[in-house]
Design goal:
This protein is mainly beta and about 450 residues long. The chain has eight helices and 29 strands. It has a five-stranded mixed beta sheet. It has a four-stranded antiparallel beta sheet with strand order 2-3-4-5. The longest helix is centred in the N-terminal third of the chain and has 13 residues, at about 50-60.
Length: about 450
């Protein structure tokens, strides 16, 4: 549905009710499913060479093929915007508006004429729509006391209230947003938790306006718990698999999934299917990814005892669980920690999950594709710069220097609030001070 004066998504990109719970869980019987998370190459960065390293990153990024990326939930979102030749980092500013660093230049995204309304203090999803080669940003707004999904697209950040456009159910307060392009079905998909506590998806395709997917709405499925995390990914292959994970009212991790070529959703109680006794803590964040080297699907969560746990689905065709903290003897997570996962397909396949420990240090566990049950303790922040709320903010990008991981995080500033930092194993750089712009809203 288009409103008067609204530009169509096609033209912009060309220019530049609660289902009843039913016990019909559908474990996947195929031996292999697919999915992925964003991973970008970047040179190691020091304080003296942040700008030149960014240009090096852009050079590498532009040599990579464009693809749809799952937007990681959080108060930061990193997007390799190949159509506009920029590396974009979106964040919520202390002035209440959405801001971005585009190739190092601060840009105010909302609060200006012909731009979207101010966001709520909640998650952001961003990625490139490869159907029309335009960047997209999604966030929540408050419209008459109800939360709506706002979309900004194209280089001018043209706004659309997707909840109104799709006639969709309002969004639950604080719901994360997850989105990706399905290049097989040629659809744009944005997932959220509705006010009915069920997961919903808004879908767009060329010639068909944004709409709420009734196939999912009509599927009997377990409800999400209050303050549930949300994570998902897709692998755009011949037989793509769409995956969304959330925490149910019984503290189990659930998966909604379907093949792109088959318009039918299924659900799986992943905790039960794996035989794991480690239920998720209340409000646990989720992070997920697909290791294409090891053919292993992964979802990470925090258990009730603050351990970092993983659920793995491999070529065995079954889910299995592993307590990464206990398995490695590593640190527990902070009570307010969030999670982020990244898959390194080079180097024989390395997968990592990032979190914050009680000392506010960025920690990680990583493993190698060949041995999915073996994990090692990692540390992206050995200097312990006491970064605030880092895992909620952490957006890893891959460093070419000895397999180093780099990340954007929140850190303290002299005024007692916080700035955005770039961190790797060589140190950290205050990019708010370095590049300017409005300071971020602290997590």
């Amino acid at each position: 549905m288009k409103t008067k004066g609204m530009k169509s998504q096609e033209s912009m990109f060309a220019c530049e009710a609660s289902p009843a719970f039913a016990q019909d869980s559908q474990p996947k019987n195929e031996s292999v499913k697919y999915g992925f998370t964003r991973r970008l190459k970047m040179f190691s960065i020091t304080k003296k060479c942040l700008t030149c390293a960014l240009f090096s990153f852009l050079f590498l990024a532009l040599c990579r093929p464009a693809h749809g990326i799952a937007g990681a939930p959080g108060t930061l979102c990193f997007d390799n915007d190949t159509p506009n030749h920029s590396a974009d980092l979106y964040y919520l500013g202390q002035d209440g508006n959405l801001w971005a660093y585009q190739s190092g230049a601060p840009v105010q995204v909302t609060g200006l004429v012909k731009q979207g309304p101010a966001p709520q203090s909640t998650g952001i999803a961003c990625y490139v729509n490869t159907i029309y080669n335009g960047n997209e940003v999604f966030y929540l707004t408050n419209v008459g006391g109800k939360f709506h999904i706002e979309q900004l697209y194209g280089s001018t950040f043209y706004p659309t209230d997707l909840t109104v456009a799709a006639g969709a159910i309002p969004v639950a307060s604080g719901s994360p947003l997850v989105g990706y392009i399905d290049s097989v079905a040629k659809t744009d998909n944005v997932f959220f938790i509705g006010t009915d506590n069920f997961v919903h998806v808004l879908t767009w395709s060329a010639g068909k306006a944004w709409h709420e997917d009734t196939t999912l709405d009509n599927k009997s499925r377990p409800a999400a718990s209050t303050s549930s995390g949300l994570s998902g990914h897709i692998r755009n292959a011949t037989n793509s698999s769409q995956e969304i994970f959330y925490v149910g009212t019984n503290a189990h991790v659930y998966e909604l999934w379907r093949w792109s070529s088959i318009d039918a959703w299924n659900w799986t109680d992943v905790t039960k299917d794996s035989g794991s006794n480690a239920v998720a803590e209340s409000g646990s964040p989720l992070a997920s990814g697909y290791d294409t080297v090891g053919n292993t699907d992964m979802v990470f969560y925090l258990s009730a005892n603050q351990d970092v746990d993983a659920l793995l689905f491999s070529t065995s065709g079954r889910w299995s669980g592993i307590d990464l903290t206990a398995n490695t003897g590593g640190a527990k997570a902070a009570s307010n920690s969030a999670l982020n996962a990244v898959m390194h397909q080079e180097d024989g396949g390395i997968h990592s999950v990032y979190f914050e420990d009680p000392n506010q240090t960025v920690r990680s566990f990583y493993g190698v594709s060949q041995w999915p049950d073996t994990w090692i303790v990692g540390d992206i922040d050995p200097f312990q710069t006491y970064l605030k709320g880092t895992p909620q903010a952490i957006e890893p990008v891959y460093g070419a220097n000895a397999g180093d991981d780099d990340a954007y995080v929140f850190g303290p500033n002299s005024s007692g609030t916080c700035d955005l930092y770039f961190v790797n194993s060589t140190g950290d750089t205050d990019i708010t001070a370095y590049w300017g712009g409005t300071a971020p809203l602290c997590p």
